[in-house]
Structure formats: structure tokens, C-alpha cells
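Recap slide: Transcriptional regulator-like domain-containing protein, sequence and predicted structure.
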Amino acid sequence: MPGADWRSESAYGEVRQAEAADIAWEWLRRDGEYQKAFTALAGSELSSAASDDFRRKWGLTFCSRSEKGVRQTSRFLGA
């Protein structure tokens, strides 16, 4: 909302529709300390201990990374 008039009700329309988690995320992602910690974590080999420490400190959870779940086969679906 750069340049928005903080006194204008219309500038806060989206915020009124937001849930607590949305507002918390917007606050957190602008935090300089969080940005540094995330950059350090993302730039390293992700160990479960480092990930656990990060989650505990910032109160976050992460989805597992996707994995290839289909075996390679020469069979194809067909009629």
C-alpha cells in the first residue's frame, strides 16, 4: 500500500477481509530479523534440527517438499 492514505477507510478494505494468520504473515515477512534468518536457512542444506529451531523461534510450520511418487514404467494407460 505504498502511497495509500492511512486515514482513508477504503485503503484498508483488504485488511478487513483478512484473517489473523494473514495479518501475522504480513507482519512477519517484513521483519528484518526474520528475513535474515530465512535467507540463511534457505541458502543452506536444510537439516531437520535447523528447520526445527527456525519453526520454534518464528512459530511456523512447513509443508514437506514434494517427492517423485510414481515409479517409472514402460506401461501406458490406453484403450
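Residues 32-42 form the longest helix (11 residues).
Residues 9-58 form one domain.
(End of recap.)
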